[in-house]
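Technical annex B. To support the medicinal chemistry partners, we prepared a structural model of the target in complex with S-adenosylmethionine, based solely on the information shown next.
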Amino acid sequence: MNIANNWKDYEILDMANGEKLERWKDIILVRPDPQIIWKEKTYPKKWEKVNAVYKRSSSGGGGWSYKTKLPESWQIKYKELTFNIKPMGFKHTGLFPEQAVNWDWMINKIKNAKRPIKVLNLFAYTGGATVACLYAGASVCHVDSSKGMVTWAKENVISSKLQDKSIRYIVDDVIKFVNREIRRENKYDAIIMDPPSYGRGASRRGLAI
Ligand SMILES: C[S@@+](CC[C@H](N)C(=O)[O-])C[C@H]1O[C@@H](n2cnc3c(N)ncnc32)[C@H](O)[C@@H]1O
């Protein structure tokens, strides 16, 4: 397993009782994580400075409980990349910090290719990988079926000052878009796919290849 240990603005402060205590720049959040099966807190004092806690409800959903007033969004940096963080439903913040190892790997591959690289980022969410690939010099086609997520990805691209790079944003179902690209015979050097366990697209069919 590769460990994302190059963060300065993000840190896991402690874990206990199915919950993770995380620092996102200056803001401390508690989020559920079923992998944390032990009960004892290692640093009980650190849990006293929490800004918001995401609590699951017995009916299956959940929500944020705010201990202090939080900005609607705030920025965190990973090396030269800047991301906008917002506490959202389903315990999301708009970023998966553990993905930083993959961003480093992609940046390295693209820079070392020493030729133009075309990336297709499917299920691209708020654009973590998109921002990393643009930064490394690739052109990126960013596909997600959620308009809100694509808008958020644009914000991250702008915050990372990459808006003048070669990027195409597509709000569409991945299956439909990929089938169109196959028909158009559009080719890519790299395809990134991080699908969720439950899709949102209209199409449930496989690729018509
Ligand atoms: C788990 S997130 C991907 C995380 C992302 N790769 C990252 O590291 O930041 C899944 C994304 O897939 C999108 N999505 C789900 N079903 C889709 C579909 N059928 N077509 C396109 N996007 C879809 C969701 O809107 C969501 O943004």
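Notes passed to the chemistry partners:
Residues 96, 99, 123, 125-126, 128-129, 144-146, 149, 173-174, 194, 196, 199-201 surround S-adenosylmethionine (CB under 6 Å).
The first helix runs from residue 100 to 113.
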